[in-house]
Design brief:
The protein is an alpha+beta fold and 495 residues long. Helix content is 35%, strand content 21%. Helix 5 runs antiparallel to helix 9, helix 7 runs antiparallel to helix 8 and helix 7 packs across helix 10.
Length: 495
């Protein structure tokens, strides 16, 4: 409970699992009276020390039992949930009603929670068109350090519903991405969209990162796709091996059911099997696109625009197995938190302006090359993913894989088969330390090119890279809401 995917933490004096917000209020008040720090925890899928205790005299609040979807308001197109709801749980409940969040979570959404995502950051599905999941929050209910309950957005107006965010100053924003350092989110409301009836998936191979980057930039600016992510050759191989896309019967079953009709679904699954995975070896980079729209003609027109953009940058059409399977099973097995043979895994990532991305990628590749001999010595592989987030930003994600033994969290979430693979590796602290060294170097390089870390927690150099006047405002907010600094000390650089 007191460690995340990558980091160990101090042993909390108490671990509690409240069942409702009233119990959270009581816990926070009792912790304050006892002089204990408070660390809120969601699904545990982060890797930034976000919820990892920094002091032993503390209470870790496990929010996973607050897992109720409170309201799905189809008339006003919003949904209100508790923080322990997983992205998968919310996705499935909304899908039954033909509804969806615009951007609907991270690939670890089978375990990752909505509360954790809003505290640490959450993107991927739908993010090229709709941005981050936090962009669609209408309001929150938050427990402050003194145990008081505060509503934000339109819900803060007496007798009103949480149907609109902007009612005077935006009091919702400070509690998004705060790692629980300003308050503990106990309810959150999102806006909804109707499920797009028509979806087209496309994939293209590219010879170099400059070409795929230019294609992604143009597609992002055109605003014609829901998803547009790319992989380098290493990540392509890892993904195909890890998910066994052409052999995974369960994945193909979902492709069939997601096809809209039995014939179309079977046709899509047959294409995936026929495509195999050999095509991935022919391209240094691959780009995968999802186009969706309520109108068939609009979806087809957008797909044609994507084809024109991709081919103009040298992209070659390849089988669309990856986006087809990922959209039919967006939240797969938690075995994905390890490599295909059970290797340990951890990412580091940041947002960069589209116009600065080429220089940022060049700097990143140079940095990784400088570590090449040491990475080979320790058996460390890296893969790179890029994905536009809205029309202005790109996220660059570097994923590390290395041979190492599993830890406590892996023991709880992995399948028996995957756990057996992981246990075949001996503990490898030297490789782990090198991964951390490289991640730290990447974060420093990101800062030099104006890249904002995604997932701040207690690891990213947030305070060091903020304008002093801006950070002083955050300090004043923290002091006003939590004068004794009891909520998640250390997060965001706040003591």
């Amino acid at each position: 409970m007191t460690r995340d995917i990558f980091y160990d933490g101090a042993s909390a004096a108490f671990i509690v699992s409240p069942r409702n917000k009233e119990e959270i209020v009581a816990i926070v008040r009792e912790a304050a009276a006892a002089g204990l720090a408070v660390f809120p925890r969601g699904g545990g899928m982060s890797y930034t020390k976000g919820y990892v205790p920094s002091v032993e005299q503390s209470v870790l609040i496990d929010l996973s039992a607050l897992d109720q979807i409170i309201t799905i308001d189809e008339a006003n197109m919003f949904v209100t949930v508790q923080p322990g709801v997983t992205w998968k749980q919310l996705y499935e409940a909304l899908r039954e009603k033909g509804l969806r969040l615009p951007a609907f979570g991270t690939m670890s959404g089978a375990k990752a929670t909505v509360g954790g995502g809003l505290s640490q950051g959450s993107i991927f599905y739908g993010s090229t068109q709709y941005g981050t999941t936090a962009d669609h929050v209408l309001g929150l209910e938050v427990v402050l350090a003194d145990g008081s309950l505060v509503r934000t957005g339109q819900a803060a107006m007496t007798g009103s519903k949480p149907y609109f965010r902007w009612h005077g100053p935006d009091l919702t924003g400070p509690f998004l991405g705060d790692c629980g350092a300003l308050g503990i989110k106990v309810e959150m409301t999102f806006r909804l969209i109707r499920w797009p009836e028509h979806m087209i998936t496309l994939s293209f191979g590219f010879d170099d990162f400059e070409s795929v980057w230019q294609a992604q930039n143009a597609i992002a600016r055109a605003g014609c796709t829901a998803d547009c992510f790319s992989f380098d050759a290493v990540l392509q191989s890892q993904l195909m091996e890890r998910n066994s896309l052409v052999q995974n019967v369960d994945a193909l079953r979902h492709v069939v059911s997601a096809g809209g009709s039995l014939f179309k679904g079977l046709k899509n699954a047959a294409k995936i099997v026929a495509g195999g995975k050999g095509f991935m070896n022919e391209s240094a980079y691959s780009m995968h696109v999802v186009v969706e729209h309520a109108l068939k003609a609009a979806a087809e027109a957008a797909a044609e625009e994507v084809r024109l953009i991709a081919t103009a940058q040298g992209g070659k059409p390849i089988p669309n197995s990856i986006p087809q399977v990922m959209r039919s099973t967006p939240f797969g097995s938690m075995d994905q938190v390890l490599g295909p043979s059970g290797e340990r895994w951890v990412p580091v990532h940041g947002f960069i302006a589209l116009s600065d991305g080429m220089e940022g990628m060049k700097r990143l590749l140079e940095l990784l090359a400088s570590y090449g001999p040491r990475m080979i010595e320790h058996g460390i592989l890296t893969g790179i993913l890029s994905n536009p987030v809205g029309a202005s930003a790109m996220i660059i994600e570097v994923l590390f894989y290395w041979p190492d033994s599993p830890h406590e969290l892996h023991e709880k979430i992995l399948s028996p088969r995957k756990l057996a693979q992981a246990r075949s590796f001996a503990s490898n602290p030297a490789a782990r330390a090198l991964v951390q060294e490289i991640r730290t170097a990447i974060l420093a390089m990101f800062a030099e090119v104006g890249t904002a870390p995604f997932g701040i927690g207690k690891v990213a150099p947030y305070k060091q890279n903020r304008d002093p006047a801006s950070y002083e405002v955050l300090e004043k907010i923290k002091t006003a809401l939590d004068p004794e600094r009891r909520l998640n000390p250390g997060a965001l650089g706040l003591s």
